[in-house]
Amino acid sequence: MTHEPRGWEFWIDRGGTFTDIVARRPDGSLVTHKLLSENPEHYADAAVAGVRALLPTGASIDAVKMGTTVATNALLERKGEPTVLAITRGHADALRIGYQARPKLFERHIVKPEALYDRVIEIDERMSVDGEVLRPLDEDAARRDMRAAHDAGFRAIAIVLLHGFRFTDHEARVATIAREIGFSQISVSHEVSPLMKLVGRGDTTVVDAYLSPILRRYVDQVAGALGHDTRLLFMQSNGGLTDARAFRGKDAILSGPAGGVVGMARTAADAGFDRVIGFDMGGTSTDVCHYAGEYERAFETVVAGVRMRAPMMNIHTVAAGGGSICGFDGARLRVGPASAGAVPGPAAYRRGGPLTVTDCNVMLGKLRPEFFPKVFGPNADQPLDVEAVTRGFEAMAAEIASATGKAMTPQAIAEGFVTIAVENMAKAVRQISIQRGYDVTRYVLACFGGAGGQHACLVADALGMTKVMIHPFAGVLSAYGMGLADLRLIREETVERSLEDLGDLAARAATLAADAEADLRAQDVPMVSVETVATLRVKYAGTDTPLVVPFGQPAEVRAAFEDLHQRRFGFTSPTTPLVVETLSVEAIGHANAGAEPSFGRTSGAGAPKAIATVEARMAGALHKTPVFDREALPIGAEVLGPAVIRESTGTTVVEPGWRATVDARLNLILDRVVALPSRRAIGTQADPVMLEVFNNLFMAVAEEMGFALQNTAYSVNIKERLDFSCALFDRDGNLIANAPHMPVHLGSMGDSVRAIRDARLLDGRGLKPGDVYMLNAPYNGGTHLPDVTVVMPVFDAAGALLFYVAARGHQGDIGGITPGSMPPNSKTVEEEGVLIENFLLVEGGRFLEAETRALLAAGKWPARNPDQNVGDLKAQIAACARGAEALTAMVAEFGQDVVEAYMAHVQNNAEEAVRRVLATMESGSFAYELDDSAVVEVAITVDQKARTARVDFSGTSEQVPTNFNAPASICRAAALYVFRTLVDDEIPMNDGCLRPVELVIPEGSMLRPRYPAAVVAGNVETSQVVVDALYGALGVMAAAQGTMNNFTFGDDRRQYYETICGGSGAGPDFDGTDAVQTHMTNSRLTDPEVLEARYPVLVEAFSIRRGSGGEGTHRGGDGVVRKIGFREPMIATLLSNRRRVPPFGLEGGQPGAVGAARVERARGGVEPMAATDLVRVGAGDAIVIETPGGGGWGRA
Fold first, then answer.
1. How far apart are CA 548 and CA 569, in angstroms?
2. Contact, 506 vs 518, CB < 8 A?
3. Whole-angstrom Cα distance, residue 751 to residue 762?
4. Which helix (H) or strand (E) holds 728?
5. In whole angstroms, what is the distance from residue 421 CA to residue 1104 CA?
6. d(CA 175, CA 388)
7. How far is 590 from 916, CA to CA, in rounded Å?
8. Mean pLDDT of the chain
9. Could you give the C-alpha distances from 900 to 731, 894, 1078, 1089, in angstroms and in order?
10. Residue 939, SS3 per DSSP
């Protein structure tokens, strides 16, 4: 077979700091080149400059294959094309509100990502979920509004209509009108992302419109410089190349990192490894990914605050890189997330930068000035500045000694920072592997990126991995991956049908495959072969967690799905129907990358020769460490750690106990050859390094529990609205760490744990290994009945009690007088559902299902959907089991005394952080009235000298005959939340936060009611009042909306519950935020298209209630208007507050607007709804809820 003569090929990764190039000469040999991405004094574009530097005069270019961060940078910096959003009337604010959750739980000033669009056009049209035209498209109005936007200078438009992904006529017609008007960039949602979910699809369509013009200009610039006949291909986020003319904004976000995944997967396969964890450590961040024979893609991701609904490589990024800033906060060493960047860069770079992870390796002797490029200083000719690094660490040692009394050497501090950074990176790997059911100890860590080799052995050790691979092109592997990549084109469409009712799906798959292949061939790129692969995204009916399985017969699809579900989530549900969510067809064009390159070295005899021996600190001790030049290591060479191997694009550190070998393809293969020693010798005294490590470890356990619960839960409430919490406790029931879920749960779960412990110690049976308990009793550790807490005691091998783990979830229905168990008019707790006190749920490892079902069916108003309750309880048990397993593993690694000591230390650390804030606070008092005239009154007396506070609720109303009573545990949760938010730093929320605070709650008041008072609104409504009253007494911020607007509708078959966001309060130096969940809740809202697919309702409008925030120097945030139309008769309930008494302003700021609600009847009448109300609605009726705004701060 003869080959045509080849020209040059250039494979380029244009990164944020450096542009890497691998060029293939006509003879097949490879050459690499690295240059700064931005260097305006010398060249306009790095990629073009690199090509020109390498290309001989007169030589021809076969192809340029490129990954670029141009789109990502434009997104991060919000420098895309000015864009108009055209969306169904009533939903102008849908993307701004999103799913209503706030990004950071404990920040008083809530900052939401900035919108990408500048103008909104509401299109008067409406399709139903079944394709019925509810409102025809008003073409004249659409044309008029789009013409006005075009006249104002807009040229990019994103068109997103409700259910337009499936019923495309209206979107297509609006796009035609936009073309006629003259818009040059028209992104239409059913073409960009033909998938259900208005918010994700809408964001993706806007991103496409916002970034595509930027990409087009960049492509034209590169093509103009290289010649328009040069074949130019770009890497997409999905891991495939595409012709430059077909490169779109929505596919460009992970363009660079995707090349690294392809390079890693291909080179690992060549080296004989089929299970790989990719570890790409750069200057500002580290990317990790998982590969086991096929590329893993994510279909819903958030990038730079934007929800993306497009296939992307599943790459997890963590803010830990060589440039991550290292600091000391008075108790703990901290690494990142801030980075020193390229300017000023690390302290060693001679620009006055801060200490970073790179400087730690300089301090440890792992990075040496004599072996590092001399590119620093004003003339770019000086070596790394070791003196500056040493001075920095000596100053920090003095600071640590004065703050803690602990003497640490500069080297010990540097090693501590590296330990923390390694834990952060290992945590990222666990999130993409262990949490998805993969055993990483059987994988190889494929390490690349500039800083990866310095930490590869340490990260592998932190994960129990024993093999690391570093390719000869590890420093430029993303660029190398561009050359190895196939052309790929993915076509998708929504199915949303039962697996048993697929009808013509095979024909649809064949059509999609033919279309995809034709589009791929139309790119006119030489390909050896083209194949198409069809897959389905399948999920259990009623859930929202699809898994990807190969297209096939229903029985094959079910078997593949159940196998994957069992591995990922630990259970299957054979009786639950399967739903096919999406059909996806991928056309893959295999290009000819030429013969495999020879890296030009042969086997060598004898031991490799070191070029120097230096002193370096590794594994806690100084070692005489040989330094080798990688270029000089022959095939078969072995190097035992400790050692340093340097090369032009990076440094590899071989830690003690590891061995490096050069394989036949010149990969460095690192193996652990001496068993990893245990970490039990760290001692029980508080250590600044291990304090941060344990903080992160405890938090990771709680987060892993939350991940398990969310994935395995049965109900929408837990799985999608994320109305749950997971936490771990010491043997006394003190909260140690929680995942950042629901604040109202967190401070009160300790009461649940202690209630179980105290009752069981006296019952003659006691707590036993293999036991799991549950409760919801508000008078005995619970909050309100739908919140069911599952508690698992954790024992050692000898049967001694060590810790507790607990998971609380808001169950969709637990009985009571109304569906959803949130009755607005309950008078006793029995009317709110089944009361569960200290119930043995699992005995000796056996789930007591029959007994549990009997309990749920007991009482006057039993649970309506016990299958759902049981499904959620199993998920809560699974989450607790995950937590118990992780704690047991921690004890095995560090020793029980160390783990228990650090459980105390993290509480002491949180206590000290709160005390520091109390030393600056003033005493104050506040009385806050509820709509029913009850009052929450609080006096806070601060002793600045002792750094303590007394929080006294004397004067609060007696318990009320309504259901606004709140058990004492809720008051405690509110206080814990408030004092945690006063600390402007990342500290864990644990029981240490409340140690300096004395809580006084009068018995028989509405904050400590007596049985059988009704309490369902206490958890959701009174808790918000308590938080605002505390902020008012402290003078910290104005009131937020002060209610959760609990809205429930349903019948005997279906129940749905949501809380609706409002405005947040303003503070002394910030405005309130519009349309966001505040304080004691952070639950998500179900997407309108999903809601309409599951329930017979219409989301007719969801918009910001402009002007509802209180005026002031700083304005309060605005509430929302939500209108739900009903297509069948149902019972709807509303449980709310702030309909009469408005959210207060402070320091002269005006109050926010009160909320309101009404029923708009199909026959024309309008009926106002009370703050707590129950109504019967029929087909055609609608309920409109207007939520309050936040209070303002300061006189306007």
1. 14
2. no
3. 17
4. strand 724-729
5. 41
6. 60
7. 62
8. 90
9. 9, 10, 34, 48
10. strand
782, 1019 in Cβ contact below 8 A? Answer: no
Specify the pLDDT at position 738. Answer: 86
Residue 222, classed as helix, strand or coil, is helix
- Angle between helix axes 968-981 and 743-761 (nearest 10 degrees) is 130
pLDDT tens-digit readout, 935-982: 999 999 999 999 999 999 999 999 999 999 999 989 988 998 898 898
Tokens of 312: 């992307």
The β-bridge partners of 47 are none
As a dihedral over the C-alpha atoms of residue 770, residue 883, residue 758, residue 779, rounded to 10 degrees, the angle is -120
Phi-psi region of 757 (alpha: psi -120 to 50; beta: other; left: phi over 0): alpha
Other CB atoms within 10 A of residue 1178 CB: 13
407 three-state secondary structure: coil
Torsion of CA 239, 240, 242, 248, to 10 degrees: -30
For the full predicted model, state whether its pTM sits above 0.90: no
Residue 1123: strand, helix, or coil: strand
Counted residue by residue, the chain has a size of: 1196
Helix (H), strand (E), coil (C) string for 636-685: CCEEECCEEEEECCEEEEECCCEEEEECCCCCEEEEECCCCCCCHHHCCC
Distance CA 790, CA 709 (A): 12
> Are 765 and 840 a contacting pair, CB within 8 Å?
no
Read off the pLDDT of residues 49-70 as tens digits, 9 standing for 90 and up.
999 999 998 888 989 999 988 8
Question: Is the distance from CB of 1137 to CB of 1119 less than 8 angstroms?
Answer: no
Secondary structure of 1050-1086 in the HEC alphabet?
ECCCCEEEEECCECCCCECCECCCCCECCCCCCCCCC
Half-sphere exposure of 78 (CA within 13 A, CB side): 9
Q: To which H or E segment does residue 998 belong?
A: strand 997-1000
Q: Which residue has the tokens 């004067």?
A: 955
Cα–Cα distance measured from residue 108 to residue 1067, given in angstroms and rounded to the nearest whole number = 8
By CB atoms closer than 10 A (0-12, 13-18, 19+), residue 1161 is middle
Q: How many CB atoms lie within 10 A of CB 327?
A: 15
Token pair in block for residue 291: 């590969």
Question: Rounded to whole angstroms, how far apart are CA atoms 163 and 182?
Answer: 26
- Residue 472 CA to residue 1067 CA, distance in Å, equals 55
For residue 91, what is the DSSP state?
Answer: -
Residue 390's CB is within 10 A of a number of other CB atoms, namely: 16
